[in-house]
Amino acid sequence: MDMLIENLAQKPLVYVTKDIERALGIPLETPGYFIVTNENPYTQHLQEKYPTHVFLIPAPPPSSHDTASLLEHPKTLTLIESLHVPYIVVFKNTVRIERIAQKHNLALINPPSSLNTTIEEKISQLDLLSDYADIFPKSATVCMRDITYDGEPFIIQYNHAHSGEGTMYIDTEETLKALQNTFPSRPVRKSAFIDGPTLTVNCVVTPHDLLIGNCSYQITGLSPLTDNTFSTVGVDWTLAHTLLTDSQRRDLAYMIDIVGNKLRGVGWLGLFGIDVIYDRHSKTMYLVEINPRQPASSALESRLQHARDPHGETIFSAHIHALLNSGIQHDQCVHIHEGAQLIQRVTALTHTIPLESRRALNMLEETENLSAIFYENKIPNRDLVRISSPRGIMKAHRTLNELGERIVDILHHHAESNIT
Questions:
Q1: What is the mean pLDDT of residues 375-387?
Q2: Whether the Cβ atoms of residue 19 and residue 46 lie closer than 8 Å to each other
Q3: Which of 43, 57, 258, 346 has a C-alpha 20 to 30 A away from that of 277?
Q4: What are the phi and psi torsion angles at 322 (to 5°)?
Q5: How far apart are CA 227 and CA 49, in angstroms?
Q6: Overall domain count for the chain
Q7: 111 upstream amide cis, omega within 30 of 0
Q8: pTM for the full model?
Q9: Helix (H) or strand (E) holding 220
């Protein structure tokens, strides 16, 4: 982290993002680090504390600018010009962002969007790692109309989707037929269904090294936080630390090494995340997803790492080092054993977080050292609130602990001691 601070003092970096939380992996008082984001009550609060580091772009409520619009906004371009060609970083690169950067001669340092697409899409992901097919659950690329149901449940994934929305659990002939009637010619990834906990690890590919972050338990599909069985509603580093055996850690490291070296081989640099699932029946770990971008949990992981060791390497600082193609001070990231995040998404019954719930969360923030970021999203399954905690919120697989239950009770005004 110290080396990154020295680098930014010599040449500044501007992180442009529609969601400021993505950029909070570096302390906001860091000289040479600037954030451009949407104006809302939370970002206004941060700008008041760090007026020379946080730049806000207003938009008529309840709308907000996407990252590309923020990047091309006149206020952003004026800031960039005043900093004399700083480095530009975004959460996830796109063709549109690349065109804007080229048009205005901006020093965008994210990997190419075409590379991101090749790695992230479910079908090309299988092709990329075809030499290591055994690390995936039994999978194949098939045309929707050609799939048959033989009585065993399985998973269908569209090539590209957001927050688990393109993942379907097939356990009846009727469910399969409904999809086939809607998308008969669509190619999909068909995979064996695995029953067990999902774990996530954020990692960084550098030109010469692979830095591995801290394993977290992925909180998936919990009602009333989401209506989608496969949507992530948080992560918990505390539970993951207690779940893994030494043998499982070795299996996980083996998969990370395979993926990291493959990504470096195709030219990837910076953060990526992998999701693995543990089959409780066969006692085997399988790779289920690669996310070639800065994972959403990486900023919080970095804040927890920085709190534990202010001079150590965080997963976010390693990410910026890799994008800058600069050396890294440490050969590993700071280890953490505690911390969690919980997300309430827009559901059929939950469209907003009421004022009384917000006030109760504010009281809990003071007693439990939590932090909450609220969103005004209306689109189903998008974030309404992200709540971060320095300690765990899960007691076991799919079971919240006392703190997790208190948070959900506040969000929904009633006790739900058994969340399934």
A1: 91
A2: no
A3: 346
A4: -65, -45
A5: 37
A6: 3
A7: no
A8: 0.91
A9: strand 216-220
CATH number, domain with residue 59: 3.40.50.10090
Residue 221 sits in the same domain as residue 295: yes
First-to-last alpha carbon distance for the chain, in angstroms, is 40
Answer yes or no: do 359 and 260 share one domain. Answer: yes
**Domain identity same for 364 and 277:** yes
Nearest to 251, CA basis, from 327, 292, 194, 199: 199
Provide the pLDDT for residue 276: 96
Q: What is the DSSP string of 75-128?
A: HHHHHHHHTTS-EEEESS--HHHHHHHHHTT-EE-SPPHHHHHHHHSHHHHHHH
Over residues 34-63, the pLDDT tens digits come to 999 999 999 999 999 999 999 999 987 767
13 and 157 both lie in a single domain: no
CA distances for 409 relative to 44, 193, 413, angstroms: 28, 31, 5
Residues 245 and 379 in one domain: yes
Does 419 have pLDDT greater than 90? Answer: no
Q: Are residues 240 and 267 located together in one domain of the fold? A: yes
Claim to verify: residue 242 and residue 180 sit in the same structural domain: no
Q: How far is CA 241 from CA 6, 41, 252, in A?
A: 33, 35, 13
Instruction: Look up the CATH number of the domain holding residue 202.
Output: 3.30.470.20
CA–CA dist 272, 119 (Å, integer): 10
Domain for residue 257, yes or no?
Answer: yes
Residue 123 lies in a domain: no
> What is the tens place of the pLDDT at every residue in 236-271?
999 998 888 888 889 999 999 999 999 999 999 999
Tell me the CATH number at 151: 3.30.1490.20
- Say if residues 341 and 392 touch (Cβ distance below 8 Å): no
Q: Please list the residues that pair with 278 across neighbouring strands.
A: 285
Q: What is the mean pLDDT of the chain?
A: 92
Cβ contacts of residue 6 below 8 Å, gap of 6+? none
